Each structure stands twice: as C-alpha cells, then as structure tokens.
Amino acid sequence: MNVRFLGTGTSHGIPMIACDCPICTSSDPRDKRTRSSALIEYAGKSVLIDTTPELRLQCIANNVRRVDAVLFTHVHADHVTGLDDLRRFNEVLRAPLPCYGNKATLDHLQRMFPYAFTFEPRYPSAKPTLLPIEVNGPFDLFGHGVTPIELIHGPACVLGYRIGRFAYCTDCSDIPLDSQENLRDLDVLVLDALRIRPHPTHLSLSQAIAWAGRIGARRTLFTHIAHEILHADIQPTLPVGMELAYDGMTVEVAE
Question: For residue 66, what are the domain limits?
Fold first, then answer.
C-alpha cells in the first residue's frame, strides 16, 4: 500500500497570505504546505482523503491519474472546498464516485454542493456525480477493511481512518479511549501536529509527540502543520520514529 501526502498544511496553507515570517519565506520546499490531504493506493485503486481547495494543483503536482473513492474526515472548508474538481475523475472512471463520511459531513456536503449529488441530465456544464455513503462502522473498500476512527476536534466529532496497519488522524485535539484501541499495532500513523503553542481544536507538537508515544506506531508522521514549524529546525529534535510529513512525501505500508 502506497500513501502519498498531497498536502500537509493548516487551513491557511503555507506561505500564508501577507506573511513574511521565516517559515512563509523559507526556500525549503518542505515548508511549502498546501491544505492537508492524502492519497492511498492499493489493489490498483486510489482512495483520496479529503478534497482541499488546492485539489487540482495537488493532483497535477503528484501526477494523480485516477481517484476511485473519497474518504471525508469532516466539513471544514480546508478539507472539502475542492470537491468540484472530482468531476474530472468521474470522466476518467465514467462512473459515479463513492464518497464516505459520517452523517453530519455528508449532510453538510449535500447542502454546500447540491448539484454534485443529484442526477440532472440537462445540467448545462460539467459537474461531479457523487454517491454519498454514510459511515457507521467498519466497511470494506476494494477488498480492504476500513475502520473509522472517531476523533475530538474542539467541539466537533470528526473521523480518522484506519486501513490495515496504516491510520490517518488529522484535525484532532483529543482521542477517545475506544479510538485509542483501534489505533493499536500500527506500522504508520499520521497525526495532527499544528504548531508549538497550544491550540483549542488541534494537537500542539508536544501533545502530538506524547500521543504518538502512547499509541506506539512503528512510524509516526505529523501533518496539518502551521507556520510556527520550520522543517529543518524541528525535524532533528523529534524522537526516533517520528517525522514531519511534507507535500509530495510517499511512504509504503505492508498490506
């Protein structure tokens, strides 16, 4: 199973608009962070996690040729507003595209993008054709079991996802006990690590390091990174087995 980080940035992206800080002006490509998203490839299929505002640019930069399904974590704008660009993958597949999420997420998406979830043969332009599938527990996706991981994101309940020995848990400030049990025996964990300072709805870097130690994945990659974290400065300080992810990074996970 191949996991590709399409984006690893916070909701502002990096560089941020009108910011001249050392991270936003860094020449290190690892500090250029589009909004957080990933592509999981296995069994000849490609599963996208979230549709960021830069989805088109991320797909071009990473030569993404197909998407067979989408897993949505939650409805915040930095994770969903690129949804319209899914229409290109409808054209590639010549079929509706299944989209998975909890009820609150799917209801919100259908209010935001009603045209993408209705069949209108006389619609005057190209549009996505999406098949919403509510996630209520583990499900099969292209021959692999997918386990939804409930996460606390400030006042909201959002989803991470586990496929085999890989789990993706962005945008969280706490991990409930049941979800901790579902994160045991991982080869690779992707975990929110927003910034150095505490934040009410995200894990700080020190909190993320502590959670990674508790969960005990063989390798932990931090994502959803803001502009307080300069890659070259912070990466050498991390414990063994923990790394900052960056846009375009790929990892392999045994199925």
Answer: 2-245
> Looking at residue 15, which CATH number applies to its domain?
3.60.15.10
Hey, what are 161's tokens?
């996802």
Residue located via tokens 């996970």: 253
Q: Compute the C-alpha angle 158/164/166, nearest 5°.
A: 60
pLDDT at 163: 98
Neighbours of 176 (CB within 10 A): 14
Residue 169, domain member (yes or no) = yes
In this prediction, residue 204 carries a pLDDT of 98
For the chain, the domain total comes to 1
Pick the closest to residue 89 from 98, 101, 102 (CA basis): 98
Query: In the numeric block, which tokens belong to residue 217?
Result: 């994945």
Beta strands 166-169 and 37-42: pairing type?
unpaired
Residue 251 lies in a domain: no
Is the residue at 19 inside a domain?
yes
Residues in the chain predicted with pLDDT less than 70, given as ranges, are none
Report the first-to-last Cα separation within the chain, whole angstroms: 6
